[in-house]
């Protein structure tokens, strides 16, 4: 969950890992990657309390959307915060956010456990990540690791066709 101000930047966050992900409209959504609901509750409480301190400055609220109780609470709090200040609330598909963080144009196939899914093309700036259905978040973590490993290579070869042909 994130509170974002267009001038101040990220003003409140409930993220345990601050891997910020750019969205089409310029907000930032950090990934919520907690291991327990209790830990999530503590972080969400801190984020909401800080948000109240900067309430007049908030221009938007955002969250990643994924299955589970923690994500439902996070989504509800983000919606409540945005409604409180009459601002938009942005929801991003959790796994799409993983891929959007990579940036650049690419094609990739990632295997996770017993599932294999193909990730569609991603525009360099302001593009969309297209993912087929997935069964677990291990794929998202795998995408993150792969992105860190191939990012230098992506800088040299931005062509989606070239990457697909090379694969």
From TrEMBL:
<keyword id="KW-0378">Hydrolase</keyword>
<keyword id="KW-0408">Iron</keyword>
<dbReference type="GO" id="GO:0006508">
    <property type="term" value="P:proteolysis"/>
</dbReference>
<dbReference type="InterPro" id="IPR000905">
    <property type="entry name" value="Gcp-like_dom"/>
</dbReference>
<dbReference type="Pfam" id="PF00814">
    <property type="entry name" value="TsaD"/>
</dbReference>
<feature type="domain" description="Gcp-like">
    <location>
        <begin position="26"/>
        <end position="151"/>
    </location>
</feature>
<dbReference type="GO" id="GO:0008233">
    <property type="term" value="F:peptidase activity"/>
</dbReference>
<keyword id="KW-0645">Protease</keyword>
<dbReference type="InterPro" id="IPR017861">
    <property type="entry name" value="KAE1/TsaD"/>
</dbReference>
<protein>
    <submittedName>
        <fullName>Putative glucoprotease</fullName>
    </submittedName>
</protein>
């Amino acid at each position: 969950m994130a509170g974002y101000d267009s001038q101040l930047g990220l003003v409140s966050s409930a993220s345990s890992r601050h891997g910020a992900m750019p969205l089409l409209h310029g907000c930032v959504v950090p990934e919520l990657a907690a291991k327990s609901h209790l830990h999530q509750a503590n972080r969400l409480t801190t984020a909401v309390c800080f948000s109240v301190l900067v309430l007049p400055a908030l221009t938007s609220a955002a969250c990643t959307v994924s299955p589970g109780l923690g994500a439902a609470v996070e989504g509800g709090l983000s919606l409540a915060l945005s409604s409180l200040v009459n601002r938009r609330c942005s929801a991003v598909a959790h796994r799409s956010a993983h891929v959007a963080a990579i940036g650049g144009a690419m094609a990739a196939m990632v295997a996770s456990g017993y599932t294999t899914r193909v990730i569609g093309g991603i525009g360099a700036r302001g593009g969309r990540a297209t993912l087929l259905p997935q069964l677990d978040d291990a794929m998202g973590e795998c995408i993150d690791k792969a992105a860190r490993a191939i990012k230098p290579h992506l800088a040299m070869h931005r062509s989606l066709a070239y990457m697909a042909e090379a694969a």
